[in-house]
C-alpha cells in the first residue's frame, strides 16, 4: 500500500463518537436559546446522529447520557440505532443534577448521598450490559466553592472507595474512563482537577481504568499534547472529549479556537500509536447559538482535517531533523503538514466511500433540517442540563 | 478628630449596595439548587435585604434588575423599601434573556433587535425616574462565539450608537455605569471586554458615563487595583461589582478567594479619594450552594474588614518609604495594615452604631431564616437568570 | 486589476521591519547560548538584515535599539544600509539597563533619575533626525515588584509628564509608539500594563502618539484581534511587535505558537484598512536556540502567509453571512481562507519579484551562514540585553 | 501540654532552608542590578545565611547549588557552616548553564550530552556524601521551544533512564526531590511540566523519589493546596520551594503575592501530617531589587506567620462544620484562623527562644549590612545564574 493509500485507509477507518446531548438544547447559566426541530427523546437524537453519520461516514456511534437518555428498553434503542447504521456508544453518568448533590456526589460528606451516587454509577454499568457499550465515562461535578468547605483529602478517600466499587462491577471488556476538569461547576476545588489525579486513581484501580482528556478542561497555557503523549506512554489514555475553548470550558466546536493545537494533539496520537487503538474520539460540545446538526458535521470534519494533517507528517524527516538538533528544520517538517490544505484529500476519501465530498452542502440539500422543524412540534425538547 | 475616630467615622458612613438577585436562587449551567425560603417577589427580596442592613448597618440600598424586579408601582416598591430602612439603588438592565438576543442586543446585526434592546434601556431610565435611582448599570452579554461570526468593528459602531441614545435620555443627576467582561456568555469576543473599551466609550459619551469594575471579569493575572487607580485618576470609576473568583466569573462571596487583593483594591480607592465620593460599592454574587442571607452579611463584613485595613494604612510612613526607594520598608507598611486583625475595631464600630457586634450570630438568633422557610410556601421562587 | 492581482500587489508591497537585536545573541535569565557568526556591531547587524531582505524582498527596514546600536555617525550607518538595499527604521529606546533604573526610569520616585531617562528619550529623537526614522518606539520596564513599593497613581503622573516632554520634541512627521506589557521585568505592576493605559496617554498627547501591540504582552486569554480592531477604529494603532508566545512573553517566531490567531489579527488589519496605511509591521523576537537569520526569514514568511490568507477572505460573502446571522456560514467563510495553502501563491509572488520562490533554501545555498562564522572571529558579539 | 503550648512548640521546631543563591545577585533577562556587599564565595554566602538564622532561629540549613557553590573541600565548608550554627542542606544540580545544554540535558537527543548531564548529577550525590546532605533536588530546564523540535515521548524515555541511574546511586538515607515547572526557560514543552509527570516518574523509581512543589511553577488558576494534599496522601511530597508569583515564575518573597494561598497550603500540610515530617520547607527566591538578607528574613517570617495561622485552625470545629455540610460555617472556621494577627504570638515565641522579637529591626541594628558593604570589596560577586 502506498503511503497515500495508507493515509486514506486510516481516514476511512476513523470513528468519531457524537454525544446525544449535543443534539438537544444547551446554553449558559444566563440563558438557553431553544432551537426549532430539536429532538424530544433519545430516539429522535439517534435520528439526528444518523444524519451526521450518513453524510460524514465516520460517526458510527452515539454516546448516551443517563438519565437524560433513559429509556425502558435499551435493546429497542440499540435496534433503533442499528436500523439507522449506528451503534450505541459510551455511557455517561450524571451525578450533578439531583438536589442531593448540592455538595457533591461520590465525594459528599454524607454516606447516604455517596451511596445514591454509586448506585447510579452501577445502574450505568447495567445499562452498558444492555446496550453493549464498552466505556463508562465518569465526570464528577464534585468539588467545593470555598476554602475549608470540606476536607480535600477525605474527599479523595471517598472518591477512591466509590471508584473501586464501580470498577469491581465492570465486565471483562468494559472500561472506566475517568475525566478530569479544573473547575466548574465547583469554583475552589474540583475533586479530579487534573490528569495527574485521574491517573493516580486509575493506577490503583487497574488496567480497565483509563483517563479521558477533555480539551476544554485545563488551566490556561496547559500543553495538552504533552499530556496526551504522556498518557499514551503510560498506557492510560482512554479517549478524548473534543471541543474548543478560548477561555474556560467554552464547549465550542472542536478545531474552532485553535486548529493548530488540535493538529498537535493528533500528531502525538499518531506518533504514540493511539490512532486505531482503543483511544476513543468523542465530541463533547454545546451548540448554544449555531444550528446543531451542521455544527456537529463541521466538528467531525475538523477532526478529520486535523487527523489527515497528522497522518501526513513526514515522520522520517522529522526524526532526522530532531536527531540532528535542527530546531528550525524539525519545526518546518511539522508545519509543512499543518500548512497543507487537506480538504481535497478528504473530498477524495469521501467519494471513495460513496459519500458526497461536501457533507455540509449535502446535508443542507437533504431537507432534514426543514423536516424536523415541521415534524417535531409539541412535546418537550431535550436539553443539555435537563 | 483623632485618626482612629476618623477611621471609625468612615466605616460608619460606608454603604454597600446588595443586589436583589443575590437573594434568589442561582446556579451554574449544570444545575440550580433551589433553597427553601427564597423570595418570590421583589417585595420579599427587599424584606431580606432589610435583614442584611438591620444587622450590618451599612447596606442601605438595594440594586434592582429589570425585568426580574419589574412591578406595576415603583413608588410603592420604594415605600416598601423605606418602611424597612432601605432605598432602591442602581437599576440593572437585562438584554440577554429574551430569545431575540441570541446573537446580541445593542450590537446585534439586525436593527430591529437593537431597537428592542435600546427601548429596554430607555425603559430602565423611566424606572430610575420612578425609583429615584442615580445609576443605570449596563452589562451586555453581547459578543460572538466563533471567529468571523460577526464584524467586530461594526459591532462597536452599533454599541456606540445605542449608548449615545441612552446617554441622551439620562437626567441631570443620573449616571450610566458601563461594565466590561472578558468572556461569558460569549466565548470568542465580548463587545466590552476590558476597561479600555468601556473607558473609550465613556469618554465619547460625557461625564455621566462611568466605568464599573466587576472584580470577576478579568483575564488571569490582571492587576485590578491598577485599573482602579487609573480610572480614579481619569475621573471615570463609577463603582464596583464585588465578588470573588478563583478561575473565571465564579461570583463567590467577595473576599473569599483573595482577601489581600480586595485590600489592595480598597487601598487604591482610599488613596485615590474614591471612598466617600460617588464610587458605588455593590455586590454582584451568586450564592449557589450556601445560605443566601448569611452569605450576603458575610460579604458585607468582608468589604468592611478590607476597608478598615485600607483606612489603617500609615500613609505618611508609606509615602516616606516610597520616596526613599525602600522597597521592603514600603511593602512592610502596607502589610502591617493588612496583617492587623480589624475585627475588634469593627465590633466596636457596630456597638457604637447600636448594632450587635456579631451580625451573623445576631441574624442566626433572629429567627428570620426559619420564618421565611415556614412562610414562603407556594408561589414561584425568584431565580437569578429567570 | 483582478482580485488575485490585487492580492499579489498587496503582498509585494508588504514591509516587515526586522529588529537589529534579533541578529545578536539572546537568552533567558538562566542562560544566553552564544551562536557562532553573530554580528559584533550595528554595521554587521545590517549586513545580516540585508540577507533577510535579499531573500524575502519584504524586509526593507531595520529597527535600531539605543544604546545597543549607538554609533558615532548615523549618516554613515544610513548609507551602509542603503548600500545594501535597506533603510534604517524605528528607533527603540532603552531605559532599563542602566543601574540607575533599578526602581524605574520615567516613573522613578527620584526626579534625577527621571531626568536622565527623559534625556535619553530626547537623544533618541535626535538620532531619529539623523537617521530619518519616522517612529520612536517606547517600551518601559518601569513598574513595581511588591504591593506598596511605590505609589501606582503618582507613577502615572510622572509618566505623563515625561511623555509630554518627549512628544513636544517630535518633528512634524515623527511619531511616538507607546508599547504596553502586562509584566516582566516588573512583577507586581507595570506602569503601562495594557492597551487602555497606553491609549489613555496617547489621547492626551495628540495624534502623533500611537499604541503599539506586541503580540506577547497580554494576559492569558486576551483577544488580541479585538484590541487591534478597536485601536484601528480609534485611529490609534501605530504598529505591531510580532512574536509568538505559549505562556508569557516567550518571544518565539511569529506564527509559531498560534498561526490562527496571527491570521485573525491580520484579518482585522485588512478589514480595518490598516494594511498599507501607517501601521508598522515589526518583529520583536529572541532566537535563543535556533539559527537567527533563518529564523527571521521564516518569521517574515509566516507574516506573509497570514497576510495572504487575510487578503483572500471573501469579504462580500462574509458580510452577507454576518448580516444574515448565519453563525456557521460566516465562520466557514473565514476558515476557508485560513485553510487555504497559500504557499504556492507566495512562491509565485516571489518569482514575479525576481526572487527565489524558497527563501530559506536560497539562503542556505548562499553560503552566508558559513561566511559569517568564518569571518566574524574576535571582537565582542552583540547580545540582546547587552 | 496546652494547645497554645503545642502551637508554640511546633513553631519553635520549624526549619526553613534558605538557598545560597538568594544571597547573591539575581535579575531578569533584561538586567541584573548588582547590590553592594553581596557574597563573593560560598563561604560568604554561609556567613549571610548565619545572620538569617541568628535573628529568626528557624533557618538552620542552607541549600547549595552545584557548580555555583563548588569548593575544593566540602568538609571544610560544612565546618564553616557549623561554626556559624548552620548545616549544609539540599544539593541542587545545574544542567542548564553549560553550552552543551542548549537543547536539553538528560533529555537531549545526543547521548553524549545526556552522559555529561548524568555525570554531573552523580557528582552531586558525591557531594551529598561529603556534606551529609539528605536531599538531591533536581530541576531540569529541559524542554523545547517549537512544536516538532524534538520527540516529546522519546524525551520522557531519556529522562526515565537518567533518573534511574541517579536513583540507583543514592545512599540509604538520601532522597531525590524531583521538581516540575510549566515553562521557562523552555517555551513550548518542558519535560517535567506538572506534578503528575514528576509523580509518575517517582512512582517508578521508588520510595526515595519524591515530588517537590515550587509555588511559582504552575499554570494560572492551579489550586496548589490540592496538589499538596494529594501528594501527602500518596506519600510523595518531598518538600517545597517557596516563593511568590503574580504572573509567571516571578520568584518574589514567599507570602508577598497571595498570603491566603500560602496559609491554605500550610493548612493542608498540617492537616496531612506533613509538618514535622520529612517535608522540606525551602525558599527559592530572587531578590532582584530589594536588599537580600532582610528579604530572606522577611520571607522566613512570612512562612512562620502562615504556619502559625494554620496551626491555630480549630480542626474539631472545622470537621464538625464540614460533616454537617455547613458551607459558611466551615469556611468561617478557616477564615477565623487566617484573620488572626499572629505577630504577637510569634514575638512571644522568639522571646522564649532567646531571640529579639523583631528580627528585621534587630538585623538592621546589628551593623551587618554596613559591615559587608565595607568589607566585601574586590573579587567577583556571586550571581544567580552565574
Automatic annotation (TrEMBL), chains A, B, C, D:
Which class of enzymes does this protein belong to?
isomerase
- Carries keyword Disulfide bond? no
- The domain of life is Bacteria
Q: What is its EC number?
A: 5.3.1.14
Q: Which residues form the Xylose isomerase-like TIM barrel domain?
A: 53-250
Recorded hits in InterPro entries, A to Z, give: L-rhamnose_isomerase (IPR050337), Rhamnose_iso-rel (IPR013457), Xyl_isomerase-like_sf (IPR036237), Xyl_isomerase-like_TIM-brl (IPR013022)
Name the Pfam families for this protein. AP_endonuc_2
Keyword Isomerase applies:
yes
Please provide the record's keywords in A-Z order.
Answer: Isomerase, Manganese, Metal-binding
Q: Which GO terms describe its molecular function?
A: L-rhamnose isomerase activity
Q: Which NCBIfam families match?
A: RhaI_grampos (TIGR02635)
Protein name as annotated: L-rhamnose isomerase
Amino acid at each position: 500500500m502506498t503511503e497515500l493509500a495508507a493515509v486514506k485507509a486510516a481516514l476511512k477507518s476513523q470513528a468519531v463518537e457524537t454525544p446525544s446531548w449535543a443534539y438537544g438544547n444547551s446554553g449558559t447559566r444566563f440563558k438557553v436559546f431553544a432551537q426549532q426541530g430539536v429532538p424530544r427523546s433519545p430516539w429522535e437524537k439517534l435520528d439526528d446522529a444518523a444524519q451526521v453519520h450518513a453524510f460524514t461516514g465516520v460517526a458510527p456511534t452515539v454516546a448516551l447520557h443517563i438519565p437524560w437518555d433513559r429509556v425502558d428498553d435499551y435493546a429497542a434503542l440499540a435496534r433503533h440505532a442499528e436500523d439507522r447504521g449506528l451503534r450505541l456508544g459510551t455511557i455517561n453518568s450524571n451525578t450533578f443534577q439531583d438536589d442531593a448533590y448540592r455538595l457533591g456526589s461520590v465525594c459528599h460528606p454524607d454516606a447516604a448521598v455517596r451511596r445514591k451516587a454509586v448506585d447510579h454509577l452501577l445502574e450505568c454499568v447495567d445499562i452498558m450490559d444492555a446496550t453493549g457499550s464498552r466505556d463508562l465515562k465518569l465526570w464528577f461535578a464534585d468539588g467545593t466553592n470555598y476554602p475549608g468547605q470540606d476536607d480535600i483529602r477525605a474527599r479523595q478517600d471517598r472518591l477512591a472507595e466509590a471508584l473501586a466499587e464501580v470498577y469491581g462491577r465492570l465486565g471483562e471488556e468494559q472500561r472506566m474512563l475517568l475525566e478530569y476538569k479544573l473547575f466548574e461547576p465547583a469554583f475552589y476545588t474540583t475533586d479530579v482537577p487534573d490528569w495527574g489525579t485521574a491517573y493516580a486513581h486509575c493506577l490503583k484501580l487497574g488496567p480497565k481504568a483509563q483517563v479521558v482528556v477533555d480539551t476544554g478542561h485545563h488551566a490556561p497555557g496547559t500543553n495538552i499534547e504533552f499530556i496526551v503523549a504522556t498518557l499514551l506512554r503510560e498506557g492510560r489514555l482512554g479517549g478524548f472529549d473534543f471541543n474548543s475553548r478560548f477561555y474556560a470550558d467554552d464547549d465550542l466546536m472542536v478545531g474552532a479556537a485553535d486548529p493548530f493545537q488540535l493538529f498537535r494533539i493528533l500528531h502525538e496520537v499518531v506518533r504514540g500509536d493511539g490512532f486505531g487503538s482503543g483511544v476513543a474520539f468523542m465530541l463533547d460540545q454545546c451548540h448554544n447559538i449555531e444550528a446543531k446538526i451542521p455544527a456537529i458535521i463541521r466538528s467531525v470534519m475538523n477532526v478529520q482535517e486535523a487527523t489527515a494533517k497528522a497522518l501526513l507528517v513526514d515522520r522520517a524527516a522529522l526524526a532526522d531533523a530532531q536527531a540532528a538538533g535542527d530546531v528550525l528544520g524539525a519545526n518546518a517538517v511539522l508545519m509543512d503538514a499543518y500548512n497543507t490544505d487537506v480538504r481535497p484529500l478528504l473530498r477524495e476519501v469521501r467519494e471513495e466511500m460513496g459519500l458526497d465530498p461536501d457533507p455540509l452542502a449535502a446535508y443542507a440539500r437533504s431537507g432534514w433540517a426543514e423536516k424536523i422543524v415541521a415534524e417535531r412540534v409539541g412535546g418537550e425538547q431535550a436539553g443539555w442540563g435537563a
